[in-house]
Amino acid sequence: MALAATDSNIEARIARLESDVSHIRSDLGDVKQDVRDLRARVDSHAERVDKRFDELRLYVDKRFDELRVHADKRFDELRAYADKRFDELRLYADQRFDEQRDRMDAMDLRLSNRISAVERSLASAKVWALLLFIAQAAAVYGTLARTMGWI
Fold it and tell me: How far is the C-alpha of 92 from the C-alpha of 84, rounded, in Å?
């Protein structure tokens, strides 16, 4: 009897364990389904996030391209402005150098004229000096000849 009571007790326990295992299997099936649903939702969110990142990448690329075009335009404008200013400065410097060259040429001409005048004056002074030397020599020889009685 004690054995029969234990067998029925064991059978009740086994039946209870089988019922619990059945509930665990049911719960495990529900958890698996929830995990599948969650995986699908995560995949869906990942696709939406990837799509948004792709859209953002395209937007950022577009903005960088616009910025590059804008920067190129501004650099071209600055280069044109700098070229214009350098050309103006080059013309101004050339004009000032030409003015200085003209002044130097005028000074050279005036100096050349003065030197030519001095040369002419020296040439004329040489002739006068030669004539004076001849006259002095004649006077000295004349005086010598008179003193010696040659004349």
Answer: 12
The alpha carbon dihedral of 103, 105, 111, 116 has a sign of negative
Helix (H) or strand (E) holding 149, with range, is none
Phi-psi region of 38 (alpha: psi -120 to 50; beta: other; left: phi over 0): alpha
Residue 21 has pLDDT above 60, yes or no: yes
- CB of 100 within 8 A of CB of 107? no
pLDDT one-digit tens code per residue, 33-82: 989 999 999 999 999 999 999 999 999 999 999 999 999 999 999 999 99
For residues 60 and 67, what is the distance between their CA atoms, to the nearest angstrom? 10
SS3 content of the chain, % helix, strand, coil (to 5): 95, 0, 5
